[in-house]
């Protein structure tokens, strides 16, 4: 067996971080959250709406990826079949 199972946890944590960043990006646009700038909510009502929706779907994908990786770390023997 090669590799450390902690890599599942590390990769899952990064996926959760990316998911949070994508949610912020979809809601507020490309601004830094700690600079005190107001969110650009106009993107939800103009031609940028499809792009905001795509970013929400990307955030959902990252969240589900992180969930999968953490579950693989938590339950390493589930779903493993015996080799013949």
Counting DSSP E segments of at least 2 residues, the number of strands comes to 0
How much helicity do the residues have? 55-70%
Give the N-to-C terminal Cα separation. Answer: 18 Å
Model regions low in confidence, pLDDT < 50 over at least 5 residues: none
Strand content: under 5%
Task: Summarize model confidence as the mean pLDDT.
Answer: 89
Note the run of SSEs as H and E. Answer: HH
Oligomer: single chain
Largest sheet: none
The coarse overall form would be elongated
Number of helices: 2
SS-based class: mainly alpha
Question: Could you tell me the radius of gyration in angstroms?
Answer: 18 Å
Describe the overall structure:
With about 80 residues, the protein is mainly α. It has two helices and no strands. The chain has helices at about 5-30, 50-75. Helix 1 packs antiparallel against helix 2. The radius of gyration is 18 Å and the shape is elongated. The model has no long low-confidence stretch (mean pLDDT about 90).
Give a topology summary.
Layout: H1 6-28, H2 49-74
Structure summarized in a few sentences:
This protein has 84 residues and is mainly alpha-helical.
Structure characteristics:
84 residues, mainly alpha, 2 helices, 58% helix, 0% strand, elongated
């Amino acid at each position: 067996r090669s590799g450390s199972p902690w890599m599942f946890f590390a990769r899952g944590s990064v996926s959760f971080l990316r998911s949070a960043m994508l949610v912020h990006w979809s809601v507020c646009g490309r601004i830094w959250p700690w600079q005190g700038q107001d969110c650009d909510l106009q993107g939800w009502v103009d031609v940028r709406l499809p792009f905001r929706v795509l970013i929400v779907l990307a955030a959902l994908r990252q969240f589900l990826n992180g969930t999968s990786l953490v579950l693989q770390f938590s339950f390493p023997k589930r779903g493993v079949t015996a080799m013949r």
